[in-house]
Amino acid sequence: MRTDSVLKYDGLRILSKQLGLVEAERFIALMRREPFNYTEWQRDLFKDVPLDKLLADAARHREQTKNNAG
Question: Would the pTM of this model clear 0.85, i.e. be above it?
Answer without folding.
Answer: no
